Amino acid sequence: MFTCPQCSVTLSKRMSPSLGLTWVCPSCRGRAVTLDLLRRVVPQPLVNRLWQRARSGPYGSTQKCPACNRRMAEVPIIATEGKTTCLDVCTHCHFVWFDTQEFEGLPKIPPELPKSEALPLKAREALALAHLEALRRESAATDLQAPPDHWWQLVVGILGMPVEYNDTPLRSWPLVTWSLAAAIATVSLVARGNLDAVIWQWGLIPAELGRYFGLTFLTSFFLHGGLFHLLINLYFLVVFGDNTEDVLGKDRFLLLVATAAVAGDITHILADPRASLPCVGASGAISGILAYYCLRFPTANVGFLNPFHYYRANWFLYFRAPVIFMLVAWASIQILEIPWIMGGIGNVAVFAHLGGAAVGVLFWWWTRRTVSAGAPQAEAS
Prior knowledge:
Oligomer: single chain
Strand content: 5-15%
Number of strands: 9
CATH topology of the largest domain: Rhomboid-like fold
Order of helices and strands: EEEHHEEEHHEHHHHHHEHEHH
């Protein structure tokens, strides 16, 4: 499914005997054309100049490729009558996006009967689709270990955290996600001046559930055991929370966060009701968000840094995988840590993580048919 970069609606497939296979937006009438098709109808020097500039020039664009959702290069070229036209080119999928009337403004090769006219229309359409799929697979193989687009994501990778490749467009601002992140950061940073005392006073202690009439269920959510603990939780909340809030809506997203947080706390308590050590952090709620995101967008991709390749290629490369594999790997690690935690080794609240993730799974099952069919889908890049 290809999506219009301007209207975010599904493109319609069009097969023209003279032009070939294109994808047209039924709303704005823009169209996506493969580079190979463009070479058959537009003079070769113009297409070559367009492609060379897209690959080597410093051209950015706010438009995203209809196929892979990556940002395209907005390349200026001189079309007819000396007028300059800017075309959006995806160097990964070999797609060129034309806004309304841009394609018509390009010079054309004089029409002649192509050899493929001897084939039926359906056969030529199947050949065009097969060729496009081959290009996409070739691009995917080339980009499998490509670094992310932003420098700060390299820092994230060095810290061992996943990098989100898809950057799915949002329909509205994730105000709940940002507000929660700001509140957690503020409370945790204010408490850093006397962190140990604050954690002992306001953390959740399973053996002392009645403290402050149960208020520690709430206060422990906003406290974190250290700066690294805080940064990891904030990163996962912001990266995976914005898309989750976007598809669920603010009310249901807040319900997911609250339910996952409480379920995580209860699971942690049931694992050892006599524990006297305080538990802090929003990990239970964030585990619920992560589980929901991975099930809602199973083909979205994340990347993990491959530090060993730096010495061979003088650049960091990434292992890329669908998020559903990340969820399985994460859950497996939590389960494998249970014997260590039960034996008193380590201080990670794995039961809170698993309890929150279970709520995320149940929430996905509960909302999978009621979430708007028009909600944006994260596509594999």
